[in-house]
Automatic annotation (TrEMBL):
Protein name in the entry: site-specific DNA-methyltransferase (adenine-specific)
Cited Gene3D superfamilies: Vaccinia Virus protein VP39 (3.40.50.150)
Domain DNA methylase adenine-specific: 185-403
Domain of life of the native organism: Bacteria
Amino acid sequence: MRVGFHATKQEGAIMENGQLTWITNFIWSIADDVLRDLYVRGKYRDVILPMTVIRRLDAVLEPTKQAVLDMKASLDKAGIVHQDAALRQAAGQAFYNTSKFTLRDLKARASRQQLEADFRAYLDGFSPNVQEIIDNFEFRHQIPRLAKADALGTLIEKFLDPSINLSPNPVLNSDGTVRLPGLDNHAMGTIFEELVHRFNEENNEEAGEHWTPRDAVRLMARLIFEPIADQIESGTYLLYDGACGTGGMLTVAEETLLQLAKERGKQVSVHLFGQEINAETYAICKADLLLKGEGDAADNIVGGPEHSTLSNDAFPGRTFDFMLSNPPYGKSWKSDLERMGGKAGIKDPRFVVRHRGEELSLITRTSDGQMLFLVNMLSKMKHDTPLGSRLAEVHNGSSLFTGDAGQGEIPYICQASQEVSIHGE
């Protein structure tokens, strides 16, 4: 999801649009400098995106590195097994690294074999939430190729180049003046999203494949929030996307809700929830939230090949205030149906409901599962709050016209769901 650049203030120094663009261009250029002849251009992202995440997290953790190592030693000595919360507290972040290395420590490795071993140990030291990002990027699979070509050290050096600063803290001159302003979480998230967008364009990915055009997302957010903007009260609101891709819909919706609430003098807390089956886009989404300082939201994003929204609902029984999604079109969900017991055996209460003693099936044809994502959201609507739930979902036209005249999937599902919602069991 592409979001426009914004000026960011950091301890008296201004990170201007031009500086953000320059940093983005610098990171983009690393691919040509280091990866040319090692990878085809379409595969540059397999290295650059995870390395951008790793370097940012490394820079954020540098000031508390020793505190984390001390805490780790104390916990181990005391025989404490569950260490995550204490290590997060020591790091002052929603993530940490317990290896003895930072990227700067690895920069001076003379031996290619030693560098590879130490870099792996460094990656292994990250907290479980970061491990999940690294695993879904499949970044460890790239290390042998990089090491064999003697490119791993060069790659690390490029990301540590003194002309760019990916730390939230400014780089100072000897007289105390700011040489390079720090990157706050929003600015870093903006750079990361711009890199993702460029790689999508480079690979000729069509809108809707893994990301949705910004204008469409902002329109959806306005459709959800603006009609009831004056009814928003101070409190906590839950946002959900069952096909969250790289997370653009969730973050834009969050920004829109916070802005509307602020304009009306309301204090709201927003919690994001999402599910995504594609491993790389899931990793991007989770990484983007971590880079923006939204560690709690990152923990509420569930994904990977084993986490299909249709056959493996990550949030059963939970309801949400606002939901928006751009589900896949024309994609068969036959494998999901088989995992759910087939049409005769499916008992998922999202898709098989009871109304006035009669069992009603909301199952659609297996050649296109887009309508089941709508049914999934309908099952997660609130019915006991003043605003209830509001949702927006992108669909193509096929579901309107499948079946006999007037009997498309959308009219049938919406009518059946509405009757169950109004009349209950």
